[in-house]
């Protein structure tokens, strides 16, 4: 039996994050974007309140029947909170302190020592960030083609290569970096390393200038003979020896998306809802005198509401499956593709309805630019469809 009622804890999280979005985040959104600057003081306050960039983990803590020993709500709490915060502003939300995209690989594949070392630094005394670095200039959608190299040496590895488009990468205390010990091995050669800020040979020379999400930092990372100690190989040597044939490093990278794609979908839904609600207010106030146009506008907005609701249901399903320990890769890919596409259409529809007014220093115009990347990062829509097709058609021996 599926219940759509929020638990007490979920309701409280929704109310708190909506309050913050409405009264703290939205009022500084336009100015923050104009300055292209992360609002440090505000993020400091959020950190003290324990409001982090929430990328809850797919929990592997299962009992014999395949269900987790204890149901957790982390993924559902994550999607509820992220929708509200992104309703306030997605760039500021993505800049919130916390392990970010780097959290799930450490939670799912890190040794207990690594989890203790890297995940307990996110305390109230000082804002800190984590990051996840997979994308390279010649390896985005096809992550199996990464070229950042990891050469085994005494007591560790030497990394060389370049990563691009890394969210919060320049300010992160550590970054989960994917590299290959031998490109000819393909996926089986992949390893994940936790590279720490200040390690010799690790730098972040550039922040990208983007069309949207301009206040959030997207960094280039460079590794030049960067020595990474053995203890920072994620999961330790054993992880890769035991499952070498299954390409463990690549799996660590992909598994991350099962918990992060619903979070990204929820943020896209938050932006679409913001644009929809904002436009509806204006239509209700200014359009009644236009007769037929008023009717058409209301019908267009009703369709937007329906599409937002559909994307949310799929997103909640993906998050719920993650919480109870059921395989959710297909739902995670579907909700991410649907929400990214839907949010772009809804924001465009809102701009169309507002006409030229919407184009001039307006939140709707900003939302339209912000939302575009939601059908690109964490895998483009074409890649989400590939993930779905592979899972859907595998039982029929159809290769996609
Ligand atoms: C703001 C922002 C933040 C990001 N944050 C991070 C981060 O924190 N960490 C990180 O590692 N990466 C990050 N990325 C990178 C992002 O995940 C990649 O941009 C994305 O995966 C697409 O890769 P690409 O840019 O190389 O495009 P490409 O892979 O070159 O794709 C170009 C086009 O070809 C299509 N295409 C490619 N392969 C296929 C195929 N097999 N079938 C059909 N179509 C195909 C794609 O759908 C796309 O339309 C971020 C990107 C942005 C813009």
Describe this structure in words.
By secondary structure, the chain is α+β, with helices and mostly antiparallel strands. The chain has a domain of 119 residues: Beta Barrel (Butyryl-CoA Dehydrogenase, subunit A, domain 2). It contains 12 helices and 7 strands. A 4-stranded antiparallel sheet has the order 2-3-7-6, with no helix packed on it. A 3-stranded mixed sheet has the order 1-4-5, with helices on one face. Helix 3 packs across helix 8. The longest helix is centred in the last third of the chain and has 39 residues. It starts with 7 loop residues before the first helix and ends in a 7-residue tail after the last helix. About 4% of the residues have low confidence. It binds flavin-adenine dinucleotide.
The side-by-side strand order for the widest beta sheet comes to 2-3-7-6
Look at the structure and give the mean pLDDT.
91
Q: Structural class, please?
A: alpha+beta
What fraction, in percent, of the residue positions are helical? Answer: 40-55%
SSE pattern, N- to C-terminal: HHHHHHEEEEEEEHHHHHH
Question: What value does the Rg take, in angstroms?
Answer: 21 Å
Low-confidence parts lasting 5 or more residues at pLDDT below 50? Answer: 56-69
Instruction: Figure out the total of helices.
Output: 12
Number of strands: 7
- End-to-end span in angstroms? 34 Å
The largest β sheet comes out as: 4 strands, antiparallel
Q: Which oligomeric form is depicted?
A: single chain
CATH topology of the domain at 130-248: Butyryl-CoA Dehydrogenase, subunit A, domain 2
> Which architecture of the domain at 130-248 does the CATH hierarchy give at level 2?
Beta Barrel
Estimate the strand proportion. 5-15%
Shape: globular
Spell out which ligands are present: flavin-adenine dinucleotide
CATH superfamily of the domain at 130-248: Butyryl-CoA Dehydrogenase, subunit A, domain 2
Name the CATH class of the domain at 130-248.
Answer: Mainly Beta
